[in-house]
Every structure is written in structure tokens, then in C-alpha cells.
Amino acid sequence: MTESSCQAASPGLAHDRDDASQVHTPVVDESSSRDLLAAAARRLLEGKGPVELAGVATLRPEAGDIVGELRVCADAPAPRCEEEFKVMIENASRALAGSRLAAHLARPLRRWRLVQESGANRIQLWPVD
């Protein structure tokens, strides 16, 4: 899911709100070319920036690793619990593992988090550090 609208991204570019300047994040899906998928994987593995797997998650290079990030809509039904977050992560992990992008990554993601956007701020909901 992307942005505060929580709509699934279409292949192409998404706008990421990591800093004051808008960063263009490549968006890939199952219809993306092998070359685009390879370029997206290189971007992640070289730590150059995030990649959006449409309808699944944003993948971010972080501290020599890749972190999967799910965005939860601010207007999503509450309350949400840790078990629901774990199920969301498990579903996203399976979707990534079954994607064509996964074949271009060196190993499965070991770290995931859920965030909620509130205006220009991102709040990490789970895991709680």
C-alpha cells in the first residue's frame, strides 16, 4: 500500500515521504520486465533507495539489509492487535516470496515493520522498539 490514501501502487513511480524532498520510488509488479525487476533488486542490494512491490509492501535498504514495510491506513478500523500485525506481515512475506522480484534478491527478508502515515509523519506501529 502506498501513501496516505492506502491505494495499491501501479507499476511506475510512487512518491515516498522519507524526507522533505519527494523521492521517486520505483514500483514493480508481476508484469514488470525482467530488466526492471533486476534493476529494482540492484537498487535495494546496493542501498540506493526503496522499491515498491505493488499491492504488497515497500522494501527499504537499511543498515546493510532490506526491510519490508507495510503501511496501515490512518482510517483503518481500530483497534489492531499484535496478532493481526503478525498475520499482515506473514501474508506480505508470502506474497514477496512468491513474486518474480524475490528471484532477484539474495535472500528472504528477515525484518518487517508496520507504519502509519499521519500527514508528513510516519509512525511505526509494530514492532514497537
Please indicate the count of domains. Answer: 1
Order of helices and strands: EEHEEEHEE
Broad shape? globular
Helix content: 10-25%
Overview of the structural elements:
The protein has 129 residues and is an alpha/beta fold. It has one domain (12-126). 22% of the residues lie in helices and 33% in strands. It has helices spanning 34-45, 82-97; strands at residues 12-16, 23-28, 51-53, 57-62, 65-72, 111-118, 121-126. It has a seven-stranded mixed sheet, covered by helices on one side. It starts with 11 loop residues before the first strand and ends with a strand. Residues 1-5, 7-15 and 17-21 have low confidence and may be disordered.
Kindly list the characteristics that best describe this protein:
7 strands, 129 residues, 22% helix, alpha/beta, seven-stranded mixed beta sheet, 2 helices, globular
Topology:
Elements: E1 12-16, E2 23-28, H1 34-45, E3 51-53, E4 57-62, E5 65-72, H2 82-97, E6 111-118, E7 121-126
Parallel strand pairs: 2-3, 5-6
Antiparallel strand pairs: 1-2, 3-4, 4-5, 6-7
